[in-house]
Design brief:
By secondary structure, this protein is α+β, with helices and mostly antiparallel strands. The protein has one domain: B-lactam Antibiotic, Isopenicillin N Synthase, Chain (Jelly Rolls). 27% of the residues lie in helices and 17% in strands.
């Protein structure tokens, strides 16, 4: 692994996952933002993944949250099935992957938690997806579980917001460029338990895919399994790095940057012991439109993508992965103009 917090290394390899030290930037040291932005730019244009260290999310909080995942997944199956946001084992196949012909269900179970809003929030009243409310396990079954999980999600949302100026400067934009576009972030999560056992041919913990959103933040665990696909076509393991969070670009940011920041394929191999993961998908507000950024367009590199609103893209991504080919053929073209999601002016 190569640490590139102070800029681009002399001997950079796209066959390694870079390590970015956020400590100097988060402490407000002079020049730290520009140095970190240069390192992030290089990582995102060449690998699409990077580790962050000194991110100010406490190790004890992450460890407790992983332990809370085990508490939940150890519940009887009837208790888990009573939650509408629980996805039982062998229920998911990424059918539209361009990386692999995925034919087998994934070897994991999952609880989806999204950012909750008050009942009178306009998007909640309008019934928009991914705006809450969530189904939570009974506090009598799992005391403090909800409050402790929310503490972790709040910490990750705070970290995501602090990363926005780094992304802006990495794209040669003003440091505050993204701030107003994340006032009501549509973050979602995949809280997963990878189940050990025999795997069929072409079966994975999670099959090869690209993420959908802006960025994904995932605390690293000691149990291996995550691999990313390098530009040379090699599956490279994301090895354990103490206290690190691994970050990758989603397809929405890839579109927004006109293909400049890589949405890298990745997968999770079958495991021989229990593995728990806390994937946090940090995304902009629902009505944010990804029109290729001005610093990512030139006469030699014209726009590759049409504008798209985030919530439309999120729903489209799910449909592309889980609907049958016949049902997908009935979908409207992806554009803000034919979006089903609208709020009446206040």
């Amino acid at each position: 692994m190569q640490q590139i917090a102070d800029g681009i290394p002399q001997h950079f390899s796209d066959e390694e996952i870079p390590i970015l030290d956020f400590g100097p930037y988060l402490r407000g040291e002079d020049g730290a933002l520009e140095n970190l932005a240069a390192a992030l730019r290089h990582a995102q244009e060449n690998v699409g993944f990077y580790f962050i260290i000194n991110h100010m999310v406490s190790t004890s909080l992450i460890d407790r949250t992983h332990a809370n995942l085990k508490r939940f997944f150890d519940l009887p199956i009837d208790e888990k099935n009573s939650l509408e946001n629980y996805v039982p084992p062998l229920s998911t196949i990424y059918v539209s992957s361009t990386v692999n012909n995925n034919t087998e269900p994934d070897l994991n179970e999952m609880l989806r938690i999204v950012r909750e809003r008050p009942a009178d929030h306009p998007a909640v009243e309008a019934g928009f997806p991914y705006h809450g409310p969530n189904s939570w396990p009974d506090d009598a079954l799992l005391p403090r579980w909800k409050s402790e999980m929310l503490e972790y999600y709040d910490a990750m949302e705070t970290l995501g917001a602090k990363m926005l100026p780094v992304y802006a400067r990495a794209l040669d934009l003003p440091a505050d460029y993204f701030n107003g576009l994340f006032d009501d972030p549509v973050w979602t999560t995949r809280n997963q338990h990878y189940i050990p056992g025999k795997a069929n041919k072409n079966q994975f913990g999670i099959a090869p895919h690209r993420d959908h959103g802006f960025i994904t933040l995932l605390p690293v665990t000691k149990t291996p399994g995550l691999e990313i696909l390098t530009q040379k076509g090699r599956w490279m393991p994301a090895n354990w790095l103490e206290g690190a969070i691994i970050v990758n670009t989603g397809e929405f940011l890839n579109r927004w940057t006109n293909g400049r920041f890589m949405a890298t394929p990745h997968r999770v191999l079958p495991v021989n012991r229990d593995r728990y993961s806390l994937a946090f998908f940090y995304n902009p507000s629902w009505d944010t439109i990804a029109d290729p950024l001005p610093t990512c367009v030139s006469p030699d590199h014209p726009p590759q993508f049409k504008p798209v609103r985030f919530l439309d893209y999120r729903v489209w991504y799910i449909n592309q992965n889980y609907l049958t080919e016949n049902d997908k053929a009935k979908l409207e073209p992806l554009s803000p103009e034919n979006s089903p999601y609208h709020l009446d002016p206040a």
